[in-house]
Design brief:
Length: 973
């Protein structure tokens, strides 16, 4: 699919057919996502952009509705990613991205004809003003202005290419529209002169000079002044090509994944005079600097000049040499001549690889910025230059999409084709941290080893990634040499901290670093961060890239410290787990904290191998949805005690497995097993017995949290059995106790029974409020299995209120979310909702497909309460198809199941279904009696059928009335 924003908003299919995007707000949403091409836009930002000061009552729900409508037009291209949404479109799938790519190719082209053709193709993409129809929106204005500036710059470049080719560009209209654009006026004046219209050229210069003075209080820039002088002198150089204004090397390969970075650095250089690109070795600081600088050559009248520092270069001499200032025996020192030569220059100076000469670079740059007001400096360094006015920009590693693209391209150049979408390639790039140099080194090996073998050998990466570009500096030819270069620049305290940090996985806090390193870490850590060897994450947390960690771990072993440091690591994280408050008001904070430390906790468990730590972590694993991880942990620690066996069995049930349930003597194990059996949709009777024993045990202990936990499960069990009074009493008492203890997870457990009771009584507003509050708690705690169930609850309510599109979307979201959590029961809950929606929309084949899937799972799990509903739904599908025999068989079977579980509402549902089957067969009297019995049963249970759920009963009643009218007319049925 392609998108057009260079003019009115347009969308085209891959075949070029227009794709309709209806409704102004939906189109505005698409424009907002296109403005942020490829980047996630938060839901809050989107709502603010779409509605500004006139926010709807529920902005989140309104935005979800608009997103849903946009997805109907675009499909899966609109993806939800925390904290909002992103449009999955390749850069050149948007005409603005295509335009930028063509302009960039033109800037790199040495041949003027190639430049002219590329720029012409780029400008032909414009169908009108950028983002036409949306430029009054605040969120569009800056992007539209930026695009217009790019267009004008491309027009100027095209005019200059035509002049170089001896062709005459027609710029008169543009000059009238933009009389103060100096570059445009320069091209126009040169064109007039070359056309033999010298007087007009001079008049245009005088007109510009007067306008600049009157409107801006400025004089023409040096380039225009020199052009004016050359015209007056009739300088023959005016008819020759421009003098080269840069010494940047021409790129040998295309840069991958850095377009947003280039744009950001360009924007910084427009307002900042010293920008330093920092980052670890091999991350691509130099390449990013070169790419950015190449795009800015035409922005600096005195050009863009590169100075590369190798080994121990004399800084002043290197800069002077790059600028063509000879180091001869002149009476004025070279330093002074360099400063004087740059005093009036409008120039960008690129200083590459400054980390080993940072002090002399700092002294020189500080003086040059003070004495040369039009000078800009773009530096690359593993640490800051450290002077006033410096703006740091940390070069990120490549994300996995760009990393796999780079790896595939470089592998292809080595003669080996790889699939960038392969999971193995993605894993390889992830293991190499998305560092371009490491990826390029790996690409040179893939032809010999293949991707799989290369991936398996990354544990010994320093002996594998040893063949680089012979033309590169020695420190960039192997992975080890790259990190050796950084290591050699460190002091001994910095080396101690770096090697000891290597035992951490996925970073650590400052407290953890101090405990595990057993050293004064603050100053060395700050220096390591400055040198880009330690990455600072939110928190703050301190993390080593995997290659740096592997290198540092080798140094740790060489120092003989590996075992003692790993023991300190184990002891610190075991203590952290034991101190966690996972029940009560601090629950959310502790879950998030342990989430951040999950990899370190796993490392500690692997090192210690003790059951105690596994049991301590078991409730956290459940709360964070790490069911499979919990199972692996218990299976890997050896002989299990009774509590550990109960934990393992409960976790296995929650992941959808049938396992033998062990004996449990303590209330904690009894409750967890009973909870798991119920939540996993297995063996309701065994779950009820376990919960009753747990409730008795917790009551004897006076454990209010445990009492509330047992009551919340019993409330849901009572609901399944049709005991609405007990469900209400237990649910409300559990909710009260959990609120007393400030336990959000516990409050979440009471949502289902209480919301279901509200739904049964027809109070959909209360049911919706309870489910929304539950979803908010689940998302706040990042309990994604719980969130899946709450989405299903909201989907069911949307179904009942007739909003089928929203219901389908919510159920599908719930199904996918549950699947990602290996929460099979949650998938089943959502699939039931999809089945209900399909039947109510007349999609009987789809409904039956979903129902058969659920029926087989319920049979496997021995969950009769679930099959009472499924058999009723299958019976209604058969009735709607007019198959009386099939409907009768299914509803008869459903009635038997309902009577077995003793739920009066399930019995009533089966009777209503049987009435429908008998009405098809023409048995009017028996069908009416069944409907009356069903209504009486529902009334006796205190749950009369709400109007929104009467569609099946009303359909059967209508058929029976029609039969009665036929009988009354004396006609045979």
């Amino acid at each position: 699919m392609r998108f057009g924003v260079l003019g009115p908003l347009e969308v085209w299919s891959a075949g070029g057919e227009p794709v309709g995007v209806p409704e102004t707000k939906v189109r505005a949403l698409l424009v907002d996502l296109l403005v942020h091409r490829g980047r996630v836009v938060s839901a809050d930002r989107l709502a603010e952009d779409l509605w500004a000061q006139r926010q709807p009552a529920n902005p989140t729900a309104s935005l979800q509705t608009k997103v849903s409508r946009l997805r109907r037009a675009l499909g899966d291209l609109v993806e939800a990613r925390p904290p909002g949404y992103v449009l999955l479109a390749e850069p050149e799938a948007v005409d603005l991205g295509r335009f930028e790519a063509l302009v960039l190719r033109a800037r790199r082209a040495d041949n003027a004809r190639v430049r002219a053709d590329l720029l012409t193709e780029a400008l032909e993409l414009w169908r009108g003003p950028a983002f036409a129809g949306f430029t009054d929106e605040e969120f569009v204005r800056a992007a539209a202005e930026r695009a217009e500036e790019q267009r004008l710059s491309a027009v100027e470049s095209l005019a200059e290419a035509h002049l170089e080719l001896g062709e005459q560009p027609d710029l008169a209209q543009l000059v009238t529209e933009h009389p103060l654009r100096e570059r445009l006026r320069a091209a126009h004046i040169r064109a007039l002169y070359l056309a033999g219209r010298q007087n007009e050229a001079i008049e245009h210069y005088e007109d510009l000079r007067a306008r600049l003075a009157d409107e801006l209080g400025l004089d023409p820039g040096p380039e225009l002044a020199e052009l004016h002088t050359a015209i007056l002198r009739q300088d023959p150089a005016l008819t020759r090509s421009s003098v080269r204004r840069t010494n940047l090397p021409a790129p040998v390969t295309e840069i991958v994944g850095r377009s947003p970075a280039v744009a950001e650095v360009r924007e910084l250089l427009a307002v900042k005079r010293l920008v330093t690109l920092t980052g670890p070795g091999g991350v691509g600081k130099t390449r990013l600097a070169f790419e950015t600088a190449a795009q800015l050559v035409e922005s600096f009248s005195d050009g863009v000049w590169l100075v590369e520092f190798w080994d121990n270069d004399a800084v002043v001499e290197a800069v002077a040499s790059a600028l063509g200032i000879r180091d001869d025996a002149a009476p004025v020192p070279l330093f002074d001549r360099l400063v004087d030569s740059l005093r009036d220059k409008n120039m960008l100076l690129v200083l590459d690889n400054c980390e080993h000469v940072v002090e002399p670079v700092a002294r020189l740059v500080e003086l040059l910025l003070r004495t040369a007001p039009a000078l800009r400096v773009l530096a690359t360094s593993q640490e800051p230059i450290g002077i006033a006015g410096e703006t740091l920009w940390s070069v990120p590693t490549l994300d996995n999409a760009d990393a796999t693209t780079l790896f595939a391209e470089r592998a292809a150049a080595s003669g080996y084709a790889v699939d960038p979408s392969s999971p193995e390639v993605a894993r390889l790039c992830e293991r190499l941290d998305g560092i371009p140099l490491a990826l390029e080194l790996a690409a040179t090996r893939v032809r010999v080893l293949g991707v799989h073998e290369l991936l398996t050998r990354l544990d010994d990466r320093f002996s594998v990634l040893t063949s680089g570009n012979r033309g590169a500096p020695s420190r960039q030819q192997t992975l080890r040499a790259m990190i050796d270069w950084s290591w050699e620049l460190l002091s001994e305290p910095e080396r101690v901290v770096l090697r000891r940090l290597a035992v951490h996985v996925d970073g650590c806090t400052l407290d953890a670093a101090e405990a595990v390193c057993a050293a004064d870490v603050l100053d060395p850590l700050a220096r390591l961060v400055d040198r880009s060897l330690v990455v600072v994450l939110d928190g703050p947390r301190y993390r080593l890239l995997e290659s740096v960690a592997a290198y540092s771990a080798e140094r740790l072993a060489e120092a003989g410290e590996l075992d003692v440091v790993r023991r300190r690591h184990h002891d610190y994280y075991a203590g952290l787990a034991e101190s966690a408050q996972l029940r009560g008001p601090e629950q959310r904070d502790w879950v998030l904290r342990l989430d951040r430390e999950n990899a370190n906790l796993r490392q500690a468990l692997d090192f210690g191998g003790d059951i105690r730590l596994a049991k301590v972590l078991s409730w956290y694993w459940y709360l964070s949805g790490r069911i499979s991880e919990a199972r692996r942990a218990f299976e890997g620690v050896g002989a299990l005690d009774p509590q550990s066996s109960a934990c393992l069995a409960g976790m296995s049930v929650l992941s959808g497995q049938n396992v033998e349930i062990p004996e449990a003597d303590d209330p904690e194990s009894q409750w967890f097993l009973g909870f798991a059996l119920y939540r996993g949709g297995m063996d309701l009777g065994a779950s009820e017995r376990l919960i009753e024993r747990a409730l008795a045990g917790y009551t004897e202990l006076g454990d209010e949290w445990g009492i509330a936990a047992a009551l919340s499960v019993r409330a849901s069990q009572a609901l399944v059995r049709g005991d609405l009074d007990r469900a209400r009493a237990d649910g409300e008492r559990a909710q009260s106790l959990f609120r007393k203890h400030g336990d959000q997870w516990g409050q979440l457990q009471t949502v289902y029974p209480l919301a279901a009771l509200a739904e049964i009584s027809g109070d959909y507003a209360r049911a919706k409020r309870l489910n929304r509050d539950g979803l908010r708690i689940a998302e706040d705690l990042q309990l994604w299995s719980e969130a899946a169930d709450r989405l299903t609850g909201l989907g069911r309510l949307a179904l009942l209120t007739g909003d089928f599109a929203v219901a389908d979307e919510l159920h599908e979201r719930a199904r996918k979310l549950a699947a990602r959590q290996s929460y099979r029961a949650g998938e089943i809950h959502a699939e039931i909702g999809l089945a209900l929606g399909a039947r109510r929309q007349g999609e009987l084949d789809a409904a039956e497909h979903h129902l058969r899937e659920v029926y087989e799972w319920n049979r496997h799990a021995a969950f009769d309460p679930g099959n009472a509903l499924i058999l009723a739904e299958l019976g209604f599908v058969a009735e709607l198809r007019g198959d009386a025999d099939a409907a009768l068989a299914l509803h008869t079977k459903g009635l038997a199941v309902a009577r077995h579980i003793g739920d009066p509402r399930a019995i009533a549902l089966a009777q209503e279904g049987l009435a429908g089957a008998h009405s098809l067969a023409g048995d009017r009297e028996y069908a009416n009696r069944l409907l009356d019995e069903a209504a009486a049963a529902r009334n006796t249970a205190g749950a009369p059928l709400p109007s929104a759920e009467r569609a099946d009963v009303d359909r059967v009643r209508a058929r029976l009335r029609a039969l009665s009218q036929v009988d009354g007319a004396g006609k045979p049925r």
